Amino acid sequence: MAITPPRCPVCGGARVEPDRFGPGGVVFSSTVLRVPVASRPAPVVFTYIDVDDGPRVLTKVADATAALTPGQRVRFRGPDEFGDVSVEVIG
Ligand SMILES: [Zn+2]
Question: How far is the CA of 71 from the centre of ligand 1 (A)?
């Protein structure tokens, strides 16, 4: 799978700089995808996370089969076996 370089969400420009957030955040919303996508076995739990002092991002939830509850605390983990960033519930 080709990885595309990051782009500015406003103008589409390629001149962007990395930033650091987290490693924690709070669940904004969550859902369960029950069909396999791009070689990932189902189910996959996707969750929008409001990152501490950062943006709202969409990520996978590690080792989960049910949607999370808004307000739950999570922590980012390193890339999983598919190279996807995921979070784990910490409270
Ligand atoms: Zn821009």
Answer: 31
